[in-house]
Structures are given as C-alpha cells and as structure tokens.
Amino acid sequence: MDRPVEILLVEDNEADIRLTREGIKEAKIRNNLHVVRDGEEAMDFLNKKGDYRDVITPDLILLDLNLPKKDGREVLEEIKNDDRLALIPVVVLTTSEAEKDIVKSYKLHANCYVTKPMGIDQFVEVITAIENFWFTIVKLPTGIKGK
C-alpha cells in the first residue's frame, strides 16, 4: 500500500487511546489514526457527517464495546448492515471476557474479538500484532481503500 493505512479507533478511555497510539507507533506501519470517543461520533465519522464530511474511509476499525451514547454492539451492527461499510474489518478490542459478548460480536460479523490485556507492554504488543496481521498478512479488498 503506497498511502498510509487509515485506522479508526472507537474508544472512550484516554489511557487505552494512549496505549493504542503507542502500539501503532511500535508497529512501524505508516498510518493515520483517527480517534472518536463514542458510538454516535463513530457513525458520524463513517457516514461522513458534520465535521467528518471530508474524512477517508478507514481501512480498519478498532472498536470498544462499552461506549457512551451508542454502544459498540450497535455500532458493529450498523457497520455490518451497511453495504458501503460492511467490508471494513472491525476488530472488537474490549475489556469484556464475557462469552455472551464474544458470541454476540461474532454474530454481528466482527472480524475478530480481542480482550484488552491489563499490562502496558502486553497492550502495546497486542496492538502491534493486530496492525501487523491486518496490514502485512491479510489480503483486504481494494474497494474500501481511499473512499
């Protein structure tokens, strides 16, 4: 890919936002990280509404489940039910280890489910692994890039 990877992080916890930034920096993949802090803002970003009318469609979405205004499950469902957005890989990145959350996320067509590790080093390692997996190993459809 000759342009930076566009990543949308949907996360309301400032500490997790900082850790994600650190992990992405460590992955050494050229990227633009966009951060939104609630589910409604995520959908505005993805639908290019208001302040987000000129944003690029992300290549990957990192989605927390427990969000204000509109929770991550609702956001995931909206993304996967929208033909314009459905091909964007969504990684659920959350603290929940509840089986019901895991099952529900996959039923809503999450591309993978990752539980946030507690330690800083492990968190950075997980983010680095996610980015390396999705942008060096996996073949993504070109139809979503750069929209």
From TrEMBL:
The keyword Phosphoprotein applies. One of its GO terms (biological process) is phosphorelay signal transduction system. The keyword Phosphoprotein applies. Pfam families: Response_reg (PF00072). Keywords: Phosphoprotein. Residues 6-131 form the Response regulatory domain. CDD domains: REC_Rcp-like (cd17557). Transmembrane segments: none annotated. The modification 4-aspartylphosphate is found at D64. This is Response regulator receiver domain-containing protein. It comes from Fodinibius sediminis.
